[in-house]
Task: inverse folding
């Protein structure tokens, strides 16, 4: 059972109108087990999010899965096989 601490970020949880600065959360075996602000608990691993914003439960609901991720061209210059390949790759990454 590995505990991973994510820290040093601003949290928007949708419950409060303001972001929580200097926030942290702990994940153990793929589940969120604790959260807070300020002093952090001990953990097996740490991930410093370097002041980024975290919005748990929000995810990208608008993706063009057949678009080439480096070209942003809509995938119109690719074959069906290439589009299928990129779609599968993009679904795994989102």
Result:
């Amino acid at each position: 059972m590995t505990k991973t601490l994510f820290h040093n970020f601003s949290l928007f949880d949708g419950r409060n109108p303001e972001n929580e600065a200097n926030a942290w959360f702990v994940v153990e075996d793929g589940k969120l087990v604790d959260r807070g602000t300020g002093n952090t608990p001990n953990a097996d691993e740490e991930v410093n999010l370097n002041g980024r914003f975290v919005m748990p439960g929000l995810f990208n609901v608008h993706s063009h899965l057949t678009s080439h991720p480096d070209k942003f061209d809509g995938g119109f210059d690719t074959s069906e096989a290439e589009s299928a390949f990129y779609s599968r790759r993009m679904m795994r990454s989102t």
User: Anything to note?
Assistant: The chain has a mean pLDDT of 82.
